[in-house]
Structures are given as C-alpha cells and as structure tokens.
Write a structure and sequence with these properties.
The protein has about 100 residues and is mainly α. The protein has five helices and no strands. The chain has helices at about 15-20, 25-30, 45-55, 60-70, 85-95. The termini are far apart.
Amino acid sequence: MVPKKDTPMLTAAPKAEALFPAANMAVMTRKLGLNTVPAAWPTGVSHLAQAIDACQRCDAQDVCNDWLARAPVTINAAPAFCPNAVEFARNKAAKDR
C-alpha cells in the first residue's frame, strides 16, 4: 500500500488586517509623520496603548481602509470618523514643537 501524500491547503491565508485590527493605525500614523515606537510617542506609552485599543475596537475599519487607500502619502490630520483623531492631533502638535 502506497501512503497518501499530504494535499496542499487550498484556502487563502487571512488578510493581515483581519489578524491585526490596528493595522490601519500604522498606515495612518506613517501618513501623519508619527512614530509608533513607544519611547517616541510624545504623549506617553499609556496614550499609545489607548490609541491602539481604540483602533482595535473601531467599527469603521472598512471605511478607514478605503479612506487610507485614497489619501495622499502625507496628511495633516486624521479624518473625523477616526476615534484617534484627537490623540493623533495632540501627538502631531507635540512632535512639531
């Protein structure tokens, strides 16, 4: 009897956004010119953690994906629907001082 070979999996891997709900935050902060390294977050590590949590809980992920795809390479402010718009503005102002 010849042993059967394993058949390759034919399902696609999940998108990175599905595995990491805050993936949009990385794109948004890059467009804003902000660094998400905890030591470089102007308002402190706890504020960075809160921003990540807010992004992970956000219900507008599809809207955000679409907005980010159409946004220019650099932006001055996050869109109004973003739960982190105020936090990003605060950090951008602190960084630009």
